[in-house]
Design a protein that fits this description.
By secondary structure, the chain is mostly helical. The protein is 84% helix and 2% strand.
Length: 341
């Protein structure tokens, strides 16, 4: 159902982009990203109303980390991805800014209705920006020619395809989520770990399916746009709406403030020089992203179970891996900037 739903949604997105004379990137940042985020919104709202704020918040944090490291990494491993200049100059900094905003708002260990309203205002501003971009590119973007199809037939068929894709993605994500949470609960995992790993991975599978299907169809702008747009919707729409409508403020655990939120912000900041150097994500860079998520997952398991491996992994990352990675990214970024100048 995930694969079929993603295929239907990507096909409908391409038809809409062609018909409306907008770049596929805009459709990926908006329609496909919103459709793949629907399971995340459902899960966060249910978790908050059932008194499990760690699951509601942790699933958003874990989903954003999974999207950037695993979805992009695995998709780039299948086929190297192109990154548009617009994405690097506008949408990616906005994602980093939204991550920093959530970290700042959560610094008092809770997200209330005022913080939720601020995040939703940010979402409104982002949607207005996308609408302005779509109008601009409708005048400048040269869409490929298509066979003439009647207006009524086109819209009815495309909207049906979009609706069916949404339903299949949401239903498949819900089924996977229920099964995975039941298994994780039986294994005795905490709410924070379930939210960061099991729930986050299951709610991110629609993004993974949509990105892989788009990349295999040669629409690599949609693949990257889906990930960036989905992360923005997670932070602004999912967290904002959940904090706004739930009776009690969403509590943020000390571990999330000390580790998970900084990791999410760090991964978002890491993607900027990675995308800027060459405006592409190669297979080697995809492997690096997957390796970083493997270390992150091992750290969560080791820290939860009290294994000494957690401290060893922290020292390895802080003193060896991250300085080396920062040096490489700084070198490639400066070289890319000098080449562009």
């Amino acid at each position: 159902m995930l694969v079929i739903g993603a295929e239907l949604l990507v096909r409908a997105a391409l038809r809409l982009a062609t018909r409306l004379h907008v770049r596929p990137l805009i459709i990926g940042l908006s329609l496909v990203a919103f459709g793949s985020t629907a399971p995340q919104l459902t899960v966060s709202l249910q978790a908050a109303y059932q008194g499990a704020p760690d699951v509601a918040v942790g699933s958003v944090i874990g989903s954003n980390i999974f999207n950037l490291l695993v979805v992009l990494g695995l998709t780039a491993l299948i086929i190297p991805l192109r990154v548009s200049r617009q994405l690097v100059r506008l949408d990616l900094p906005l994602m980093i800014g939204a991550s920093a905003l959530v970290y700042l708002l959560a610094s008092n260990a809770e997200l209330g209705r005022i913080e939720g309203a601020l995040l939703l205002l940010g979402l409104l501003g982002y949607l207005l920006m996308l609408w302005h971009q779509s109008r601009h590119y409708a005048r400048t973007y040269q869409a490929p020619l298509i066979h003439h199809v009647g207006r009524a037939r086109f819209w009815s068929g495309t909207l049906l395809q979009v609706a069916l894709g949404f339903v299949l993605l949401s239903l498949a994500g819900h089924l996977l989520l229920e099964a995975a949470v039941e298994v994780a609960t039986d294994l005795g995992l905490s709410e924070r770990v379930i939210g960061l790993t099991v729930v986050a991975v299951c709610t991110s599978l629609p993004e993974l399916a949509a990105a892989v299907v788009a990349a295999l169809r040669g629409e690599r702008e949609i693949a990257v746009g889906t990930v960036i747009g989905s992360n923005l919707f997670n932070l602004l729409a999912v967290l904002g709406l959940t904090a706004l409508v739930t009776p009690q403020p969403l509590s943020i655990s000390p571990n999330a403030l000390a580790f998970d939120l900084p990791v999410m912000l760090g991964v978002a900041a890491l993607s900027l020089p990675l995308f800027y150097s060459g405006y592409r994500i190669t297979r080697a860079e995809g492997l690096v992203l997957l390796g970083l998520y493997l270390v992150y997952g091992l750290h969560i398991v080791a820290f939860t179970t009290g294994m000494p491996l957690a401290g060893q992994l922290e020292r390895l990352m802080l003193f060896y891996v991250l300085p080396a990675l920062a040096g490489i990214l700084l070198y490639t970024t400066v070289r890319a900037w000098r080449r562009q100048q």
